[in-house]
């Protein structure tokens, strides 16, 4: 059973769930756009058997503050502040989709803080055709203004994000969703190639790998987290 907490990071209240042995290696999990920490509920208990799992609600999502100011860089800074506030010096970091972008931005700019990095079906930071998302009906569990701000950045990412991928020192596993995913898979393969210690595994489950194939996802990620072997060059599995 996860414990629920809220912590102030630079004036923004971040909600998070924590589970697993207090003395176990820390694992931080970052959700996709429009989700929250509960999105990991199907897999977090498995990781919590051997890891101290911290699943965040990123700003503008869930029980965290909706401050009205949004960017992927601010989310990165929130996560860094979260690590500092909890005295988590070096962590394993898992990010899905948008959460994966936040994760690799942190690993680029603060490489000494990330031991192992897992990127689940994360798009490579290249410009793509822009589109205007349609707001869903009813009450939302996230700030719609956040969605618009983040989508603009994903559509037209900072060129430096791509250039700085080679600064990542963490052993990195890129988990691709295969042809059923809306994320271009050739870009995911390139993402893994550009990270010095990156490798890629494909679990053909579409974009929501950890939900569609939770057993395959946890088995693959745990094997990677536990591995002490030198990483291999990126290759499609």
Automatic annotation (TrEMBL):
Name the keywords, alphabetized.
Hydrolase
Would the keyword Hydrolase be found if you checked this record's keyword annotation?
Answer: yes
Q: Which InterPro entries match?
A: AB_hydrolase_1 (IPR000073), AB_hydrolase_fold (IPR029058), AB_hydrolase_sf (IPR050266)
Q: Does the keyword Disulfide bond apply?
A: no
Any idea which GO molecular function terms this record carries?
Answer: hydrolase activity
* Annotated ranges, domain AB hydrolase-1: 25-122
SUPFAM superfamilies recorded for this chain? alpha/beta-Hydrolases
Q: Give the Gene3D superfamilies listed for this entry.
A: alpha/beta hydrolase
List the Pfam families hit by this protein, alphabetically: Abhydrolase_1
Which protein are we looking at? Alpha/beta hydrolase
Species name? Streptomyces viridochromogenes
């Amino acid at each position: 059973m996860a414990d629920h907490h809220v912590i102030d990071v630079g004036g923004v209240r971040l909600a998070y769930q924590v589970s697993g042995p207090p003395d176990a290696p820390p694992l931080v999990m970052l959700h996709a756009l429009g989700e929250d920490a509960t999105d990991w509920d199907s897999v977090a208990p498995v990781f919590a058997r051997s890891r101290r799992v911290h699943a965040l609600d990123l700003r503008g999502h869930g029980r965290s503050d909706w401050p009205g100011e949004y960017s992927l860089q601010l989310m990165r800074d929130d996560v860094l502040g979260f690590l500092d506030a909890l005295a988590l010096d070096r962590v394993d970091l898992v990010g899905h989709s948008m959460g994966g972008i936040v994760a690799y931005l942190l690993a680029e700019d603060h490489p000494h803080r990330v031991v192992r990095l897992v990127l689940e079906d994360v798009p490579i930071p290249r410009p793509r055709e822009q589109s205007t998302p349609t707001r869903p009906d009813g009450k939302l569990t996230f700030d719609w203004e956040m969605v618009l701000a983040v989508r603009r950045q994903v559509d037209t990412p900072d060129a430096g994000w791509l250039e700085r991928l080679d600064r990542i020192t963490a052993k990195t596993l890129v988990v691709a969703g295969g042809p059923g995913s809306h994320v271009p898979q050739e870009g995911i393969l390139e993402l893994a190639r550009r990270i010095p210690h990156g490798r890629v595994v494909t679990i053909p489950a579409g974009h929501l790998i950890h939900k569609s194939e939770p057993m395959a996802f946890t088995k693959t990620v745990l094997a990677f987290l536990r591995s002490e072997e030198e990483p291999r060059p990126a290759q499609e599995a």
